[in-house]
User: What shape does this take?
Amino acid sequence: MIADGLIAAAILVVAMATVAARGAFTAVALFIAYGLLLSFAWVRLGAPDIALTEAAIGAGLSGALLLGAAARAGRAAERPPGRAMTAAIALGCTGVTVALAAAILLLPDPAPSLAPQVAANMATTGLGNPVAAVLMAFRGLDTLLESAVLVLAVIAAWSLAPDEAWGGPSGVAQPMSRDGPLALLARLLPPLGILAAVHILWIGKDAPGGKFQAAAILAAMWMLAWMAGRVAPPQVSARWLRVVVAAGPALFIAIGMLGWLTEGAFLAYPPGLALPIIMVVEVALTASIAVALALLVMGPPGRRA
Amino acid sequence: MTATLYGLLGAALTGIGLFGLLARPERLLRLLAFNLLGGGIFLVFGAVARRGAGAGFAGDPVPQAIILTGIVVAFAATTLAVALLLRIASDDESDKP
Assistant: This one.
């Protein structure tokens, strides 16, 4: 309980400091701390799968993305609101918080839960991790739509490229760093990171882990090598790149149609074959999500300096 | 008890994020504040998941899986917002005489 209180207080302080920060870099650094502290909160809430995702995506990839943006983001678009307006905004936001807090305190007891249904039907999927069973079987459609959202996000981000840069390498080219911590880490970490990602993907069927966490780690390893100038960013016109990004969701849709043909329901798995099918989809989705995440962090092709 | 504490924290973060989104004029800070708000909403949902613990699980796995999906989608939206604000910044730059 004391630990929970300390974690909650730290998150609260970091969040308020982020909103009050003067400089963009300070705000981003505080925001990364917020993501890391939040993953402790997820562990305390009995959600290690979310904690892993939050640490890898919320703190790791967001950090790389936002630190890069802080250096290049423009000035403020408009004046800050006046004193009376700020007070009115604060009042309204307090109202939102009070209403949400009241909703939390008035939640029904005993709490409604789908945990018994998941426990009762998990055996049919062959998976031992209940969150993976929900993601890949019981709420498979959500996961399918979510992987399609990543493809759409890549298309939308690329469409922001200036005309003269189209077809070029994604993001801004990074200078090669020959020594220093970045060059060392970019050579040391990727082999270990790839190993860790494969491990997390595979144990995800029985323990916390899975494709999102594995993909985030893989993307982070690619980012690391890119930021150190060790690998060139991919050309957005490259065919292999587009095929890899679309392959995972396309395979998932094809499997869904197969279930419709053989079992009479979209995304239904034939009995006994659920686990192998799920694992094949997981591996394909990991590759697609990892490349999509990396492309999103690198950003669309930019103007050459 | 843990669930209630983090649920209330989520409610507070939602308010803080909303305030930053409305009161700060800088684009990047608005984006950060929007993500603070999102984290608060996820925590509220996580508290609901924790209260639904049962059948040997530490929390209801259905909301947990949806939060996981939500974090990835929120990240995709953040990258798109960053691409937009960098494009705006670069256009402002080239519009200057």
